[in-house]
């Protein structure tokens, strides 16, 4: 058994077929199939249930899958650590980001980081917080930029300042008050548009205030909420930092001053893996 075999095994398990895995690995099917057979022979057990269309893991395969992830992660970390000794501050940061952090990251941090470390490149993986936590655990990314709430266990976390949610809409919905803040009771009669990730936060806040909101649209991207609000379809509930993503002079922003609706952006990385030199510099930039 070797690292390459384990990487092949992980890819087959995740792809669900030899054909799909071979495409991902840019190799032909026969040698990949042969490697999996050799692995099963060496371990003396069946790792796959081979169906007509899909391959699934046996119980032994599931055990190996989790062990192989750790072994491959440690191997990658060792390679990064040794490579760092020779190459210094260059290479690629595998970074996961949520949609609602883009403006903050670009405005405050990345340009400065690029100026300091011009030989560092990025490979971005975009998704929601929970998807990025999974990618961190699997070793696909080294650092993730996520938003609270999330489970911190097993991660080093560096937080930006807390920020409120804001209600964003046209005059039709938010033009009756000159106040820059708005209460939940004022939002019960307008069609609300929000990112599904914030549903529990929002519904719990309304419930605590004994209010029932009028939900118009739930979606999977905070930017979508903003675009629908700009189209005059309702009021978007989004973190304040994302409002510049779609500048529109017809949109009105009002802070929802409810403590339970404050969130933070965080840069996180695994406690149990080596963080590359360039990764460490990125975290230092984020802290500053």
From TrEMBL:
<dbReference type="GO" id="GO:0005829">
    <property type="term" value="C:cytosol"/>
</dbReference>
<dbReference type="InterPro" id="IPR005119">
    <property type="entry name" value="LysR_subst-bd"/>
</dbReference>
<keyword id="KW-0805">Transcription regulation</keyword>
<keyword id="KW-0238">DNA-binding</keyword>
<protein>
    <submittedName>
        <fullName>DNA-binding transcriptional regulator, LysR family</fullName>
    </submittedName>
</protein>
<dbReference type="GO" id="GO:0003700">
    <property type="term" value="F:DNA-binding transcription factor activity"/>
</dbReference>
<dbReference type="InterPro" id="IPR000847">
    <property type="entry name" value="LysR_HTH_N"/>
</dbReference>
<feature type="domain" description="HTH lysR-type">
    <location>
        <begin position="1"/>
        <end position="58"/>
    </location>
</feature>
<dbReference type="InterPro" id="IPR036388">
    <property type="entry name" value="WH-like_DNA-bd_sf"/>
</dbReference>
<dbReference type="InterPro" id="IPR036390">
    <property type="entry name" value="WH_DNA-bd_sf"/>
</dbReference>
<dbReference type="InterPro" id="IPR050950">
    <property type="entry name" value="HTH-type_LysR_regulators"/>
</dbReference>
<dbReference type="Pfam" id="PF03466">
    <property type="entry name" value="LysR_substrate"/>
</dbReference>
<dbReference type="Pfam" id="PF00126">
    <property type="entry name" value="HTH_1"/>
</dbReference>
<comment type="similarity">
    <text>Belongs to the LysR transcriptional regulatory family.</text>
</comment>
<dbReference type="GO" id="GO:0003677">
    <property type="term" value="F:DNA binding"/>
</dbReference>
<keyword id="KW-0804">Transcription</keyword>
